[in-house]
Design brief:
- With 216 residues, this protein is an alpha+beta fold.
- It has a domain of 117 residues: NADH Oxidase.
- The chain is built from seven helices and five strands; from the N terminus they run H-E-H-E-H-H-E-H-E-H-E-H.
- Strands 1, 2, 3, 4 and 5 form a five-stranded antiparallel β-sheet that branches.
- The longest helix is centred in the last third of the chain and has 21 residues.
- The radius of gyration is 22 Å and the shape is globular.
- It binds flavin mononucleotide.
- Flavin mononucleotide (FMN) binds next to strand 4.
- Keywords: Flavoprotein, FMN, NAD, NADP, Oxidoreductase.
- Its cofactor is FMN.
- It holds the Pfam family Nitroreductase.
């Protein structure tokens, strides 16, 4: 008698699917709410060494990517800029400023933002073709990623600042400096580092004046 060959049931050949871990139930997190009520960016030019290392950055990027995204398109990505990459961007920022006819003062300021930086994450708005999700919503998600990254950094004790400037909107700079595709744009350059000075609070919006309550 020919022994039956051990054949694994077909379902075992299916890739293992792991259910996402259940989330904890919501409870009041007054420390987190206090943070959100007092959070404040740290001006990029006041950020110094030490800068977040790769392990820290991976945590901050993971927090930033935990952002609402209609249709799960992931219409954004990150370029982490350190060391010589920042020098390269500084030089190109000046060259593009001249080519674009920007004011010399504006060029110098834009260039300095890279010359004096030690760690910058470019959040790239990378829209996906979709019949359902408008580009506008995809860009909103990219903006939300920028704020999430700033807030994650601040919450972890790092200074953070969301900057843009003319280079962020310049497709030539995007392609040459960051390798962006034609439809991609820089949503924000998020400068990260150690704060050297605590900035004063800035005037905050009059939320009551901005809010209309509708109940019918
Ligand atoms: C899309 C976007 C682009 C910005 N670009 C610049 C910029 O290029 N230069 C600048 O000084 N501030 C810029 N800001 C403002 C800074 O991020 C500023 O520090 C921030 O508004 C402070 O906000 P906070 O005090 O609530 O953290 C930008 C803000 C946003 C939302």
């Amino acid at each position: 008698m020919i022994p039956a060959r051990a054949v694994a049931p077909e379902r075992d050949a299916e890739p293992m699917t792991t259910a996402p871990a259940p989330l904890p139930a919501l409870t009041p997190r007054t420390d987190v709410l206090d943070f959100l009520l007092t959070r404040r960016s740290r001006p990029a030019k006041t950020l110094t060494a030490p800068y977040p290392d790769r392990a820290v950055l991976e945590t901050l990027l993971t927090a930033a990517a935990r952002t609402p995204d209609h249709g799960k398109l992931e219409p954004w990505r990150f370029v982490v800029l350190q060391g010589a990459a920042l020098n390269r961007l500084a030089v190109l920022t000046e060259a593009r400023g001249v080519a674009l006819g920007q004011e010399p003062e504006k060029i110098a300021k834009a260039r300095a933002s890279f010359d004096t930086a030690g760690c910058v994450v470019a959040v790239i708005a990378a829209p996906k073709a979709s019949e359902k999700i408008p580009r506008y919503e995809q860009d909103l998600s990219a903006g939300a990623v920028c704020l999430a990254l700033v807030n994650a950094a601040l919450a972890a004790g790092w200074g953070a600042n969301w900057l843009t400037g003319y280079v962020a909107h310049d497709p030539v700079f995007g392609a040459e400096a960051l390798g962006l595709e034609a439809e991609e744009r820089v949503a924000g350059f998020i400068h990260l580092g150690t704060e050297s000075a605590v900035p004063p609070e800035r005037p905050r919006p009059d939320v009551a004046a901005l809010t209309r309550w509708m109940s019918e």
